[in-house]
């Protein structure tokens, strides 16, 4: 049958609309997933504060010693499987093989459930041994408590990968938020219950870690609801061709394919938890040797971990910005636009530097009132101030890693973090016996700075980007100086006012911290905008922020044009 030119045009338009629809669906799904991830991380980060407030620094220290171990094992076992499952499911869907996609879920679930059961037994039965490796016997109860999550999380990971293979991000997003919400509710409920019954710190920390179990269970229930709804549509999706393809590949072959694809991703994913786990296996022993008491060692470890939730909040902002960078850099690379790659890379790193620098100095300047506001005392405020600078280098590391991935240099970020792991371990061994938790904080700054530096060196080699002195040093230094002077004046005046009006110390510190964060950020941002350190091109990375600040930018610098941007 002959097809006319008009019909061919109609077919092309139809295919184009279909492609645009798929792209829009993918972009909306990615945005939904990114928003859910940010909300989940926010809940997970802030949940630590009530634990310290109610249970104290010892229980806080035990929790922070055990939880990174669980995350490491979970990532090692499951991190690559959602990626692998989504890949193979997407391939089956493109072939119309919907029964084959279901087969992948069954095979992957069996595979990961076996691994999860084995790891559960190793953690549960080996809790005392692992606690001995950590150097704190009180961690054994919490290790057993969190081990039960390994019976649920593997299947949850597989189901998330299945729906992502269909480019349906809603189940994953909903389950992530529900998982984290139930986890926080469980932790707070058990925390209040166990404290009311006067349980010791080991059991209180175990109650906090048990939130991971109930959270995983809630997430699995959500995914099961979506899975059941999907099963009802099987009859409409099934095709004869799909049935034939399903029979052509055995379960063993699928297991082998999925495992081979997932293992490298799993190995890459454990690098970040490993960096956190260095503290778990070095600091308690070193602190116990210095203070001569296991209880005091865990209390000091809890004090050390006070600063990390705030740093993680800053890095979350960078991570949400990084989600835009990988496709933007990859697109420029595919089109062969070297100038555009260089421009976007330099712009991204500069914006990360400015955000991280302001956040680090702001947290350091306000360490005392923030510490008192969140954790009821000013202990370890200097440690928190030092740790604040990991926000700068973690932000640079996150953004530069995303740019490198977009440019095709995938191994560099992982290698940089491996170097950071070694430096963190050596730094703890050398500095903790001398300066205690302050030494551990300094070793963290050195480790993250090294990782960020290695990424930036590779970024310069890969893209040819150049880092000029003025936008990175001169103008930001002036902005930081103005912010620091304003915050020092604010704290001095506020201390006099709270003393004169007899305001409770924590209430006064909370007011200083909140006003200081808002005021300091405003002074810093205005100084950067006025000096020209931030242009319209940087703001375009965050369209919502650009829309709000564009009128202000025009008033502050009416005669200045933004930096030249490749067309």
What does this structure look like?
This protein has 567 residues and is an all-alpha fold. It has helices spanning 5-46, 48-55, 57-78, 80-94, 98-125, 127-134, 139-147, 153-165, 170-196, 201-209, 211-231, 234-237, 240-248, 251-269, 271-291, 294-304, 308-334, 338-365, 367-375, 381-387, 390-407, 411-435, 437-463, 469-501, 505-531, 536-539, 543-556. It contains 27 helices and no strands. The longest helix has 42 residues, at 5-46.
The rounded distance between the terminal residues' Cα atoms is 45 Å
What is the string of SSEs from the N terminus onward? HHHHHHHHHHHHHHHHHHHHHHHHHHH
Question: What level of helicity do the residues show?
Answer: over 70%
Instruction: Categorize the overall geometry.
Output: globular
| Structure annotation, total helices | 27
- Count every beta strand, where a strand is a DSSP E run of 2 or more residues: 0
Strand fraction band? under 5%
Low-confidence stretches: 14-23, 237-246, 559-564
* Main beta-sheet strand count, sense and barrel state: none
Q: Give me the secondary-structure category.
A: mainly alpha
Radius of gyration equals 26 Å
The residue-averaged pLDDT reads: 80
């Amino acid at each position: 049958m002959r097809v006319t030119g008009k019909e061919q045009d109609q077919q092309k338009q139809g295919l184009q609309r279909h492609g645009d629809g798929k792209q829009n669906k993918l972009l909306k799904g990615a945005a939904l997933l990114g928003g859910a991830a940010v909300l989940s991380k926010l809940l997970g980060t802030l949940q630590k504060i009530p634990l310290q407030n109610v249970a104290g620094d010892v229980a806080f220290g035990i929790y922070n010693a055990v939880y990174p171990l669980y995350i490491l094992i979970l990532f090692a076992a499951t991190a690559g499987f959602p990626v692998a499952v989504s890949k193979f499911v997407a391939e089956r869907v493109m072939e119309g093989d919907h029964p084959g996609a279901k087969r992948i879920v069954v095979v992957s679930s069996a595979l990961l459930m076996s691994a999860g059961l084995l790891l559960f037994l190793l953690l549960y039965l080996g809790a005392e041994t692992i606690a001995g490796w950590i150097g704190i016997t009180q961690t054994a109860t919490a290790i057993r408590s969190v081990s039960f999550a390994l019976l649920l999380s593997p299947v949850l990971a597989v189901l998330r990968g299945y729906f992502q293979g269909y480019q349906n991000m809603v189940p994953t997003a909903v389950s992530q938020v529900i998982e984290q919400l139930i986890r926080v509710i469980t932790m707070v409920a058990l925390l209040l219950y166990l404290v009311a019954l006067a349980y010791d710190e080991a059991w209180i920390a175990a109650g906090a870690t048990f939130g991971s179990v109930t959270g995983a269970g809630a997430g699995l229930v959500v995914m099961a609801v979506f899975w059941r709804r999907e099963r009802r549509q099987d009859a409409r999706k099934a095709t004869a061709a799909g049935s034939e393809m399903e029979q052509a590949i055995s379960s063993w072959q699928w297991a082998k394919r999925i495992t081979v694809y997932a293992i490298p991703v799993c190995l890459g994913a454990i690098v970040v938890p490993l960096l956190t786990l260095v503290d778990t296996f070095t600091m308690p022993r070193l602190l116990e040797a210095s203070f001569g008491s296991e209880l005091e060692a865990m209390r000091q470890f809890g004090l050390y971990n006070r600063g990390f939730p705030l740093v993680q909040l800053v890095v979350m902002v960078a991570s949400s910005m990084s989600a835009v960078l990988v496709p933007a850099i990859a697109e420029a690379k595919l089109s062969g636009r070297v100038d555009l790659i260089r421009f976007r890379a330099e712009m991204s790193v500069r914006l990360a530097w400015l955000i991280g620098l302001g956040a680090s100095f702001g947290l350091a300047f306000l360490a005392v009132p923030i510490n008192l506001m969140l954790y009821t005392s000013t202990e370890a405020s200097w440690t928190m101030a030092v740790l604040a600078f990991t926000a700068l280098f973690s932000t640079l590391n996150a953004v530069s890693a995303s740019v490198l991935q977009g440019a095709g240099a995938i191994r560099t970020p992982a290698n940089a973090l491996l170097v950071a792991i070694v430096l963190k371990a050596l730094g703890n061994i050398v500095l903790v016996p001398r300066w205690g938790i302050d030494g551990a904080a300094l070793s963290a700054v050195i480790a993250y700075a090294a990782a960020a530096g290695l990424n930036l060196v590779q970024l310069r080699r890969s893209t040819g980007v150049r880092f000029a002195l003025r936008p990175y040093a001169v103008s930001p230094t002036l902005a930081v100086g103005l912010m620091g002077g304003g915050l020092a004046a604010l704290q001095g005046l506020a201390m006099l006012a709270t003393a004169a009006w007899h305001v409770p110390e924590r209430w006064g510190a909370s007011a200083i911290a909140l006003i200081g964060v808002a005021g300091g950020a405003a002074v810093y941002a205005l100084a950067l905008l006025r000096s020209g350190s931030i242009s319209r091109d940087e703001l375009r990375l965050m369209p919502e922020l650009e829309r709000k600040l564009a009128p202000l930018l025009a008033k502050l610098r009416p005669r200045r044009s933004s930096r030249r941007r490749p067309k």
